[in-house]
Design a protein that fits this description.
Helix content is 27%, strand content 33%. The chain is of the alpha/beta class. It is globular.
């Protein structure tokens, strides 16, 4: 994914002004920050950058006798995850209430990188499960988010263990590595459509689907939520409708608020929507938006400051 670097100059510059600016820029879509002598540098995915929104944000930056200006340039294009990808990650074990999948009781998900394996897994990592109560998911991450190491990913995976998925048609919004769609398919879902605005992520999802032997049931598209309005009915297993009974989205708060109407437009009756990628302090705002679209909140779970919300239609 290509990023813009936004160089903010704060005059006079103070730590308090930097902290407030970082919060506002984060709400506007910036993902990471670097303090400078004169202010702050922020980084945002190019498709998410809206210059008018940033100008408007600064108009409401109320700080005594403080002036802020900014310059935008294209950030260096390189794989920021390269070192992490080379080192891999330790296996992640997620447990839940469990459910019956193909006549087996599954209550544990093991996520691994193919190099660091838990003792409970057999040498044959291509196997869907090493024991009767667990599934194993291999994730080879390349410039994509979603290995299970982050709280938001783990919470959604735990929710999937508690939802009967047999025969469901699933939508994975902002699929990253594809981990959520792959997990749903291994837990019995009939088919999954995943999309991501980042071409690297879409390719990585296809790659991981092959590693996990679910590529026949996983369709991956490159784009944003606007493509939901034009999805061909042929993507449905029965080729008659594209109503999804389960939708998952692990994306930042502002994108979720923007895309919620698109999600609701493709939800079947009594469908489930799982949202994460935001802080607990964002829950009220997201719940209000969801309620206005006819959804009801089932429950919320948290892990540290992060939150995961489950809605029903």
């Amino acid at each position: 994914m290509r990023y813009y670097e936004i160089d903010f100059t704060i005059s006079p510059c103070s730590q308090e002004a930097k902290d407030i600016l970082a919060v506002l820029a984060g709400d506007a879509g910036c993902e990471s920050f670097e303090e400078t002598e004169k202010g702050l540098k922020a980084y945002i995915q190019q498709p998410l950058y809206d210059e008018e929104a940033f100008k408007s944000m600064l108009e409401f930056f109320l700080f005594p006798d403080c002036k802020i200006t900014f310059k935008v340039c294209e950030a260096e294009y390189r794989n920021w995850n390269e070192q992490w990808e080379q080192e891999g990650f330790e296996p992640i074990i997620i447990s839940g209430e469990g459910q019956v999948v193909r006549n087996e009781q599954i209550d544990t998900i093991i996520i691994h990188d193919g190099r660091h394996l838990p003792e409970s897994l057999s040498a044959d990592t291509s196997s869907a499960s090493a024991t009767t109560n667990q599934i194993a998911i291999e994730i080879d991450a390349h410039q994509a988010f979603g290995t299970g190491t982050h709280e938001t990913t783990r919470m959604i995976c735990a929710e999937l263990l508690n939802i009967p998925l047999e025969g469901r048609q699933v939508l994975d919004c902002g699929c990253g590595t594809g981990i959520l769609g792959i997990c749903a398919l291994k837990l019995g879902a009939a088919a999954c459509v995943g999309y991501d605005i980042d071409e690297w992520s879409a390719d990585n999802t296809r790659h991981n689907a092959i590693l996990n032997h679910v590529d026949d049931n996983l369709t991956v598209l490159c784009g944003d939520a606007s493509l939901l309005a034009t999805l061909p009915a042929s993507l449905s297993p029965n080729s008659t409708s594209l109503d999804f009974s389960l939708i998952m989205a692990n994306i930042n708060r502002n994108i979720l608020l923007q895309d919620l109407p698109s999600f609701v437009s493709v939800m079947s009756s009594e469908a489930t929507l799982i949202l994460s990628g935001f802080y607990e302090s964002d829950c009220q705002l997201l719940e209000s938006k969801a309620l206005s679209l006819g959804l009801r909140l089932s429950h919320t779970r948290t892990d540290g400051d992060w939150a995961c919300m489950v809605f029903k239609k």
